[in-house]
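Reader question, answered in our methods column.
A reader sent in the components of a multi-part assembly and asked whether the whole thing could be modeled at once rather than chain by chain. We filled in our standard form and ran it. Here is what they sent:
COMPLEX SIZE: two components
ENTRIES:
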Amino acid sequence: MSKTTRSEMAPWPLVMLIAAPLPLGLLDGAAIYWPQAPAVALCYAVSLLCLLLRGLTRTPRTEAALLFLGVASACLSPFLLLADGVDPSSGAGTWMYLFGASLLLWRVLALLAEETGLLRWLGPTLFGLGLLMGWEIITRGFAVPSVLLPPPSSILAAIPTHGGELWDDFCQTVLKSVVRGYLIGCGAGFVVAVLADRLPFLARGLLPLGNLASAIPVVGIAPVMVMWFGFDWQSKAAVIVIMTFFPMLINTLAGLATAEKIQLDLMRSYGAGYGKTLWLLRLPCALPFLFNGLKINSTLALIGAIVAEFFGTPVVGMGFRISTEVARMNLDVVWATITVAAVTGSALYGGLALAERRLTAWHPSFRKR
Amino acid sequence: MMTERLRTHLLPVAVMALAVLALWYAGALWLNAPQVLDGFARAHTDHWTLSEFARQAFSQKRPILPTPDQIASEMVQSLTGYPVTHVRNLLFHTAVTAGSALTGFGMGVVLGILLAIGIVQVKTLESSLLPWVITSQTIPVLAIAPMVVVILGNIGFSGLLPKAVISMYLCFFPITIGMVKGLRSADPLSLDLMRTYSANGQQTFWLLRLPSALPYLFTSLKIAVAASVVGAIVAELPTGGQAGLGARLLSGSYYGQTVQIWSALVMSALLSVSLVWLIGLMERFVVTGKRGGTR
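And here is the structure of the entire assembly that came back:
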């Protein structure tokens, strides 16, 4: 992390300079330039100053912070223009400035790529924020109709205004369908795998079936389950059980096979029986595989519930909300629901990943970090 | 050797398949019983034998659970009774689904490989993009399927492309992850050898890294092609039942045509399995060295 390891910056962000003579946008049909928009010109000056002062910084971290200031003030400028009633969509200067700023952000990311510890998440976070910012600026700058793509800010605004609905959908889809289906499906897969491990005949019969199940679109079973179990959460849970059973089965079987012969011999020399060996040696060895199965299933479970809701549901639930609001062109509610689903999916996955790290800290794949 | 293999591998599979079939028929008997009893009550048939009951349960017009032979005969009738371009021919719907799945698969392969090359070659991309590639998959992607179809429909794209986009989204992830792993799996000894030949970065990439990534690529391709079929089927749901296996599923569920649903399901399974098999066949031709990259 010393100064000498810092790579040289390519001069590309200097394309910002091209923006200087170009128009910023249209105000009442007339093109306006930098002097007519002092606040934006100030942003521009700040960005250029950050570029100039870059050479004075001593560590990658301070350089990244300085350049980030330049990027941030660039991001501010289109909103200042919009607030003044300027239409920036034809303003070549604005877009050239922003293009330069995105190249500058790239440099910031490159500087942060070397970070370790908690700071190593800063790079991906900035990248994600940059994508959101680009989405916001493009949808608002070009006045994209919200039927096509609403800007992130209006999606965010839709979350509190439709909070009640979103919460009800969350309860119906996640708390009722997903959690129950997931627990039953993974539990059944696990129990059958342990049984199959005890009876090799069963395992040899089930494995090809499991491989087949991983190749076929199991989610297609949803309409059948809706017919059998009705519109409420039971049918969704049933789809999830079927979708999650085989991944869990296959992963558990693979995991139970990982204990090494020498370890098994050691357990035998201690006089440990089948149960003790399973509990103390083979299941802990299988944990990475179990978590792999649980993680795959966490995504599958949400997909299963939402797709099953397309086939019929009581008037609540994420899949129902998405399909009805799409038909009514309320795209911000749709996106808000998707945000909730995305956050739920990521939280499930992240929680499992944390638990995995807690429980399998001994595993080689975690040692290096 | 052969009989040994037969005993240890084929026998359990055969027993399992038979058990599934037996369970299926038992399930059909059980689930269709109320319908049959209802029918008997309406016809005032008080005395019926078990065989009569079973025959009725296995030949309901709209059974809760159709039997495998009902599904098979429906499929045979649909495949042979109409010309291939007819709406009632299942092959027509399969072709529609396969078309969008394969288009999406192709796009996903290109996107996935390009992302993987970018991630392997550019350090900044690895640290900032890779976490998002992984996060993108924790999002229930299929939830946005109807919206993508509607959005793309609004800007004038309809038909194949929206469905292909969804397939692509499902496809690219396993390919990116597999390729990243594969491109990094080149043997250090061989890398050193390339250096002694003074090969430059590009030569090393084309002659060593890419070939050594192929086994990983094919493993990912198999996962991805199965995912692309799922994507295409789900993407057909919101288009309102025009063509495709997903549309068959939806219209079957609207009109309570269980046999139609099940034959569409079997067809999609066949499509998916044969695509995976095709990839496996290609793999055998392309990858001649030792196989690796299991997942």
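What stands out: Residues 291-295 of chain B have pLDDT under 50 and may be disordered. The domain at 90-286 of chain B is CATH 1.10.3720.10 (MetI-like fold).
Send us your own complexes using the same form.
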